[in-house]
Specification:
Blueprint lengths: L3 E2 L9 E7 L4 E2 L3 E4 L19 H10 L1 H17 L2 H6 L1 E7 L5 H12 L4 E5 L4
Parallel strand pairs: 1-3, 2-5, 2-6, 4-5
Helix pairs in contact: 1-4
Length: 127
């Protein structure tokens, strides 16, 4: 049985990107991407630092460009197919990994920087 954690409210006219860790419960969102399957956990350069730290974030950005670009393109495709009402209401997109400390955090930050006009960012499980 999955544990659902209190959902984030959408932000009008924005995509809310939320990083999270599956171990802390599933995020209630409109769409969810699992980066645990595409970025191995054993590659993180410094596990004592979060995915917000440039050492980890830049490593993931450099070595997983294709995977991050694929997720970003999927998000853009989702925006393209939404109707006006859904866009006005705003949508929540979760990007998860095992603990929500490194991989998902970095990916949310990287995509958020690239799509900054359309996106707001939250990190549910970062310590």
């Amino acid at each position: 049985m999955a544990i659902l954690v209190k959902p984030y409210a959408p932000i009008p006219n924005k995509i809310l990107l939320v990083s999270f860790g599956y171990i802390h419960g599933m995020l209630t969102a409109d769409y969810v991407f699992n980066v645990a399957k595409i970025i191995p956990s054993n590659i993180i350069p410094n596990v004592t630092l979060s995915g917000l730290n440039p050492i980890n974030k830049n490593f993931i950005a450099r070595n997983y460009k294709t995977q991050i670009s694929t997720i970003e393109n999927c998000i853009k495709d989702i925006v393209d197919i939404l109707d006006e009402e859904e866009l006005t209401r705003g949508i929540v997109i979760g990007i998860g990994c095992t603990y929500g400390q490194h991989r998902s955090v970095s990916v949310v930050e990287i995509i958020g920087a690239s799509m900054s006009r359309l996106v707001a960012i939250k990190h549910r499980d970062v310590r």
